[in-house]
Design goal:
Layout (H helix, E strand, L loop, with lengths): L10 H22 L6 E6 L2 E6 L4 E7 L2 E8 L2 E7 L18 E4 L4 E6 L15
Antiparallel strand pairs: 1-2, 1-7, 3-4, 4-5, 6-7
Length: 129
């Protein structure tokens, strides 16, 4: 049996660990950023309709012969059941932040989170010169 020699931890090893930990924290913070949504839209080939995120309810959406059960719970939206062949929309998880989407391609359905300020430009987003 071969035994590997013990290696001492070097300064570069510690720096690498710190950089990796800082990167993980930054990615986590960015994943939490964004406005919480106020409502969501369901776009189908037949049209678009908006629903509030504040009411816990399950909606049945029918498009192209496919039925989706869209569930709203605690300000989050998820496709909990689908009769489409690949079920990718079910595996998309929950969405709750502005501009997040769930798509069911076979049904032609796009579910998108909308917040009240999603269309407004913030002061720091542009420079006038």
């Amino acid at each position: 049996m071969q035994v590997f020699p013990k290696k001492k931890i070097t300064v570069s090893d510690i720096i690498l660990l710190i950089v990796m930990a800082a990167s993980a924290v930054i990615l986590f913070i960015f994943s939490l950023s964004g406005n919480a949504g106020d409502s969501f839209t369901v776009s189908t080939p037949q049209g678009e309709i908006s629903y509030p995120l504040g009411i816990n309810k399950t909606y049945e959406i029918e498009s192209r012969g496919i039925i989706l059960l869209v569930t709203v719970f605690d300000g989050r939206v998820a496709v909990t059941e689908s009769s489409c062949p690949d079920h990718t929309c079910e595996h998309s998880g929950e969405i709750s932040r502005d501009s997040e989407v769930i798509v069911c391609v076979p049904a032609g359905v796009v579910i998108k989170i909308i917040s009240e300020n999603s269309g407004q430009v913030q002061d720091e987003d542009f420079v006038i010169g």
